[in-house]
Amino acid sequence: MKQIKVLAQFYVDLLVKLGIVRFSLLLALALVALAVVVQVGVTLVLQGEVHDIDIVRSVFFGLLITPWAVYFLSVVVDQLEDSRQRLSKLVTKLEEMRSRDMQLNKQLQDNISQLNLEIEEREKAEEARQVAMQDLENEVYQRENAQLELAEQSALLKSFLDASPDLIYYRNEKGQFSGCNRAMEELTDRTEKQLVGLTPWDVYSEEVASKIVETDQQVFNQSVSLTYEQWLEYPDGRKAIFELRKVPFYSRDGRRLGLMGFGRDITERKQYQDAQEKASRDKTAFISTISHELRTPLNGIVGLSRMLLETRLNKEQRGYMRTIHVSAITLGNIFNDIIDMDKSDRRRLELLPKPLDFEEFVVEMENISGLMAEQKGLRFDLERLTDLPRCIEVDSTRLRQVLWNLVSNATKFTKDGGVVLSVSSEIVDQQAEITFEVEDSGIGIPASELDKIFAMYYQVKEGSDNLHAVGTGIGLAVSRQLVQMMGGDITVSSEVGEGSTFTVTIRVPLVEKVEEEEVMPATPQVSLNIFMVEDIELNITVAKALLESLGHEVTIAMRGDEALEKFDPEAYDLVLLDIQLPDMSGFDIARILRERYDYLPALVALTANVIKDKAEYLEKGMDDALSKPLSVKAITEVIQRLVLTCPIDEDEEMEDLQPEPENTGLSEDMVNQLLDLEMLSSYVEIVGTKPVYDSIAMFEEKMPEYIEILDSNMTAKDKDGIKFEAHKIKGAAGSIGLKHIQQVAQKAQSPELPAWWENINDWVDEIKDGYQNDLNVLKGWLASQEKS
């Protein structure tokens, strides 16, 4: 079979190689030959001989079958060729498929290898995952335990915070609450969830919120902690004062997250402090009361003993009387020391410098010191080492107190010899540097004691006799404080058994001798239309009655807006403007009026403050300024200078209108201290006593309301509120001539004064406790005027 395939392939290859024609000829020859051979062979076999016809017939047969054979073979060859080509193509495809299969197989092998690697890696990853899962399970377990512990700690911390009576809260950089404790919830009447996200403006009143936001901003701007006190209000209206502390807090990376706030209710502490202060004030009041009660008879003893010393007495009587006189003076000095000791404890020592005739002061010290020394049989000498200034400005009472203490101690500790008071002065830049030296020949002071003698309550022992010094032990301590307030000091030098020398140096200004001010004469009766702006009814009543009694017509406005609406420049001759009004100041009204009108009557400021310099009022649009309450003298002078053009006739001096106080139960000096007698005398002379009584009734009606509001502001430490109410009281008191209450209220309304907070409680108590007594004095004075 294989050979046939080879022969068939050979036949096809030969046909292709020779072509159809040549192959046909060759085939024809082959077939003819074959036919001849076969014919010859068959004929020989059958017949035994070969004829020509047999050969011809064989050739013819060969030629006859040759085309058919060629055709058959050609068809076969064509089919074979087609088969071969298809087979070749198939083989090519099979080779390509084989090649592709080989590539795929290779790729498959590679993929299998890669897959094996991935499987291996996945197996390793699975093992690692199992390990990681185990670790994760351990970590989750640990975290769960940590979270449980953290939750327990958070709950415990929250319990601690909620149990704290102090306010605790957190606010972020935007000022929004981030959390708080239960105390804060009670204060704000909001739960923590409700509070989160709110700002102080959403929680507190505008006044409280502004302070809180301001302090928050200070913490944020400066990144420092801040502590201050603030009043806060509970939902039920109860107020409490808290000591608030705010501190910034940060994340672990140092980024600021906001602030933490802590607030401690110190209301009880404040109340305790107020109670202590009240106890101190009560003590002071007691000491002052006892002192004043004792001073009245004591002053009588001093005065009468001085008068008796000027009469004819025998030697024994004069000795007794000198002892009485000096003892009374010494007792008065002890009173001063006790009062000043209390003031020193509360830092309320103050000086009231006034012009002083220094020569008369030195003579007075010489006389009294001589009496003190003579009482113990000692010699006293006064030495003027230099020329002394004629007039200086100093608190003579305090200076006298210091020198009396020193001279008293010198005579007390001196048994033999005497005491010398030396005075010298040096003028430097219109200032007098004055030196007093008190030298004695007494027991002296040990060197170890010199640094102690100015301590409060310290008493020196009398040398070998080992006797305690008699006295309060506070004189030198108070004396040194007073001298230091005068810009000087006290020094001491001493030797035991030889005596001591105390040196006092002060520096005080030189002044001219103060002359009595001339009194303005009265003016002729001229009726003016006066426009007055005042908000205190009592002031209105007093001023209107005074002005109408002088023949003027008065139109009143109680607010700035009302004044601007009512005012007509053509209708009025004079405008009186109160400086402090509920809605604007008198300066604001003056400015608006000057902007509004080309022509204006005179604008005069009314103020309850002491007018030290009118330039400030003139610069702010005023033509003049008057102090309240109005006096006839002051308003008359203003009318004459600013309104009238005719000269003033001098009929009588205003001081002649002031009668002497009678039957008030107090001395003239005491009445003068409590009441403004000049204003009251002028007022009563013009309008009589009935309008004053009416004003007093209105004052008594309004005063409890003023005091109640003042007390509430005192409790809340509201400086502006205290100032405003004290100003009202000052104006109201001044309107009816309560000079003492007016002066105290002036201090209470002046927060710029030194140690204002330390003194305000005393001033308020003095107003509350003293105004009724001063009213009684005023009523007694009015009764005396009616009788006279």
Automatic annotation (TrEMBL):
Positions bearing Phosphohistidine: H292, H727
Residues of the HPt domain: 688-781
Domain Histidine kinase, first and last residues per copy: 289-510
Response regulatory domain ranges (all copies): 529-643
GO terms for MF: ATP binding; phosphorelay sensor kinase activity
Transmembrane segments: 20-46, 58-77
Record-level GO cellular component terms: plasma membrane
Location, primary (coarse class): membrane
Membrane topology qualifier: Multi-pass membrane protein
Subcellular location(s) of the protein: Cell inner membrane
KW Transit peptide (keyword) present: no
NCBIfam families to which the protein is assigned, alphabetical: PRK11091.1, sensory_box
Protein name (database record): Aerobic respiration control sensor protein
